[in-house]
User: Which sequence fits this backbone?
């Protein structure tokens, strides 16, 4: 049986403890915001985008009266709306994207989305009021901004640094990557996926099988 250890709470902190997502989970505990105003309009727009996304996530996903399947569906909508899913997935696959067939690319993107959504959705149900403070923003170009933030942990301990790389070249702002305590979600997945493909003789089909096994193992608890 193929091994896929990409989603593992011990390795990625708030990313596996969100695509995450989210992730992260993707936006675990982003109910309260504070911090200085962004210096430029593009930076301000990116900062406000993260704030709106977080408020939407907390409102939609922390309702204890909804089923897990409803939470999965809501999380999927938020993930697809606010994250640049195809560009992220394509970058993670790297040179193997060019070698993949159209059918493999389609299957990969669907499985990638499933992996993030199903792996991280339960973290919203365990939201306990953590707060996120946006400390600053940094524009890298006319289209790309990093929003720097820290999450105060409700159980004590020091704040956790979470950086959001936001792009504005998709007709709207989109999250391009999430970095938790210096660990990039995209870079971590790229390394893990490349390792799996290498062990499977350079075949994307080997990664697809690993993703299917991983998402399948998570699905028995995906519905009430």
Assistant:
């Amino acid at each position: 049986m193929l091994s896929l250890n990409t989603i593992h709470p011990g390795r990625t902190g708030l990313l596996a403890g969100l695509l995450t997502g989210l992730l992260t989970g993707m936006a675990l505990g982003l109910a309260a915001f504070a911090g200085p105003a962004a210096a430029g309009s593009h930076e301000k727009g990116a900062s406000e985008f993260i704030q709106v996304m977080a408020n939407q996530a907390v409102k939609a996903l922390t309702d204890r009266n909804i089923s897990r399947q409803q939470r999965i569906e809501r999380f999927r909508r938020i993930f697809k709306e606010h994250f640049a899913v195809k560009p992220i997935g394509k970058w993670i696959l790297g040179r193997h994207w060019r070698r993949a067939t159209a059918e493999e690319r389609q299957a990969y993107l669907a499985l990638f989305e499933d992996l993030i959504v199903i792996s991280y959705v339960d973290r919203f149900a365990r939201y306990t009021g953590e707060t996120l403070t946006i400390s600053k923003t940094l524009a890298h170009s006319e289209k790309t901004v990093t929003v720097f933030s820290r999450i105060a942990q409700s159980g004590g301990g020091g704040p956790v640094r979470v950086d959001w790389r936001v792009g504005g070249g998709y007709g709207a702002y989109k999250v391009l990557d999430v970095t938790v305590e210096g660990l990039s979600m995209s870079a971590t997945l790229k390394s893990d996926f490349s390792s799996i493909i290498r062990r499977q003789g350079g075949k994307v089909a080997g990664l697809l099988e690993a993703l299917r096994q991983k998402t399948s193992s998570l699905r028995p608890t995906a519905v009430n």
